[in-house]
Structure formats: structure tokens, C-alpha cells
Specification:
Blueprint lengths: L11 E4 L3 H13 L4 E4 L2 H11 L3 E5 L7 H10 L8 E5 L4 H10 L3 E4 L4 H11 L1 H8 L14 H14 L8 H8 L3 H12 L3 H19 L4 H7 L5 H12 L3 H14 L29 H4 L2
Parallel strand pairs: 1-2, 1-3, 3-4, 4-5
Helix pairs in contact: 2-3, 4-13, 6-7, 7-8, 7-9, 10-13, 11-12
Length: about 300
């Protein structure tokens, strides 16, 4: 039985006022055997994030009341959950909205309507931190692979090698030998745990680090391009725009302008003291009050 003081484990918190979108996302998360909690508003999503401390938040941008941008700012202002990655869900292709989301602390965007492979690939990339903790024997609320932790260890070891050699990664065969397996097994492990093959993950990791470095440093883009393994700055800029919907210079200007202005958390917000039910051995989605009826 769960200790009353032990937090409920949640892999992914879904925050969206659309019941139909929540249904689609919940079905996708089941494909990866992820623990899921849902919230139908930004206010409730913030409460559940504090209570459940999820490994990842998928959140709609446009919601009545406290929208996704405001909710993300609240999460990033709270010490207990500020490190939790937030991915925005949006049907809009508005550059200003995307830039505002990144400035608020989001790590990624997923467009509506959802494409299963894209959603699972991006969720897998941003859950990587939990796989690392699991492989190293630390606490984790992340993915629990169906096979023994051997695949997790292979993936984490390969990720460590690739992260240290982004500009000049080894070939797939050499990488597999370095971590003690073969190319087929390694690709299958990446596909199962990250939603994409090895070099698909490498591309995402390059762009993930590009996002962080563009937003958080003044390093010239030509230097970032070389360090991240792009053949020339123009290719870096093109890949960045395709991935994040804006150029590196646009993101840097917006993000650093937001930092200079400072965060604007809701001063009237009171941290909740809510409780939730134990999800039980079958790990169903954790629903806010009334949402279970709405989703039926």
C-alpha cells in the first residue's frame, strides 16, 4: 500500500480543455505504457503538477481562464516543478505565440491534429532524463520498460556517447560495439524507449541543445552550428526553423527580452493542498474532479 506521504507517480500530465484531444493523447500514451494524469484547465493542471510532480507536461496553449502560457510561467516559478519539461500543444502556427511559449519556459511544440509517431518521438526525447536516473539506480517516475533494464542501460550509454560527440558521432556499428551490443538491438531499444531510431534521437538531441544554447547564451550561431554537428550555419538555421517554427535569432531576441523583463507569476495564486487517489496496479489515468464523467 502506498505511504500517505509518498507522491503518486505520473509520467505525463495532460492539460487541455478539449475532451476529444485528451482522449487521443491518452490512447497514445497507453502505447508506451506511461502513467497519465489529465486536467481540463490551467488552474487545475498547475495544482496537479504540484501534487503529482510529473516527468513531463503536455499542455494546450489556448484555454479559458489561465491559458497555457500563464500556467507554464507558474510552473517555472515553483521550485518543486520548475525543471519539469513542458511541451505545448497548438493548432496555431503563429510565430509570436511560439516565441512567447519558449520564453515562458516550454521546451517544444506539438501541432494539432496529432500524428502518433511525432508525439511519441518527442515525448520519448524529453523523458530521457528519467531513463538516465533509472539506469543509474536513482529515483525515477519515468518510463518503466517492459523488458529488463538492459535496454535502458544500452540506450543511456549510447546517449552519453552521442552527447559527448555531437559534432562527430561514431557510426551506428561502432556505437553499438562501444556499448556492447549490435546495431539492430540498439536501434530497437531506442525505438522502444525513445520513439525513434538512434540517429533520429541524435537529431532531436542536437536541436534540443540548440534550443537551450540559443535561448540561454550569447554564443554566435556559427559556433553553435559547428559544435552541434551541422555542416554549415545555413543548415543549422533551416533545421532550427523547421523544428521550432522560428529562426535562432528570433528565439534569442524574444527569450532574452523576456528574461530582462522578468517573470510575471500570478501573485494571488495559492498553492493547493489537494489529495488524489492511488492509481493502483493497473495505472489508469488520474482525473480531476468531474473529468471522469466528461471523458466517458
Amino acid at each position: 500500500m502506498r505511504n500517505a506521504d509518498q507522491p503518486i507517480q505520473t509520467d505525463v500530465l495532460l492539460i487541455d480543455d478539449s475532451v476529444s484531444d485528451l482522449r487521443v493523447l491518452m490512447d497514445m500514451m497507453k502505447l508506451k505504457d506511461l502513467r497519465v494524469s489529465v486536467a481540463l484547465s490551467g488552474e487545475r493542471g498547475y495544482q496537479q503538477a504540484i501534487l503529482l510532480k510529473p516527468s513531463l507536461v503536455l499542455m494546450d496553449v489556448r484555454m479559458p481562464g489561465m491559458d497555457g502560457i500563464a500556467t507554464c510561467r507558474q510552473l517555472k516559478a515553483h521550485p518543486a516543478v520548475r525543471s519539469v519539461p513542458v511541451i505545448f500543444l497548438t493548432s496555431a502556427n503563429d510565430l509570436d505565440e511560439r516565441l512567447e511559449g519558449f520564453a515562458a519556459g516550454a521546451v517544444d511544440y506539438i501541432g494539432k491534429p496529432f500524428e502518433v509517431r511525432e508525439v511519441l518521438a518527442r515525448v520519448g526525447v524529453h523523458l530521457q532524463r528519467n531513463l538516465t536516473e533509472l539506469a543509474l539506480g536513482g529515483p525515477s517516475t519515468g518510463v518503466q520498460p517492459s523488458e529488463a533494464s538492459m535496454d535502458v542501460r544500452l540506450v543511456v550509454k549510447a546517449q552519453q556517447v552521442l552527447s559527448q560527440a555531437l559534432a562527430h558521432p561514431p557510426s551506428l556499428d561502432r556505437l553499438a560495439r562501444m556499448v556492447g551490443t549490435n546495431r539492430r538491438r540498439l536501434n530497437e531499444a531506442f525505438q522502444a524507449l525513445c520513439g525513434q531510431p538512434v540517429f533520429g534521437w541524435l537529431r532531436e538531441e542536437r536541436l534540443r541543445q540548440a534550443n537551450s544554447l540559443v535561448s540561454g547564451t550569447h554564443t554566435p550561431f556559427s559556433v553553435l552550428s559547428d559544435a552541434l554537428g551541422f555542416s554549415k550555419p545555413a543548415n543549422f538555421s533551416k533545421a532550427f526553423r523547421q523544428r521550432f517554427g522560428c529562426s535562432p535569432s528570433e528565439m534569442r531576441a524574444q527569450f532574452q527580452g523576456a528574461v530582462a523583463a522578468g517573470p510575471t507569476p500570478d501573485a494571488g495564486w495559492v498553492e493547493p493542498s489537494a489529495t488524489a487517489q492511488d492509481p493502483g496496479p493497473h495505472r489508469p489515468a488520474l482525473l480531476p474532479p468531474g473529468a471522469d464523467q466528461a471523458l466517458r
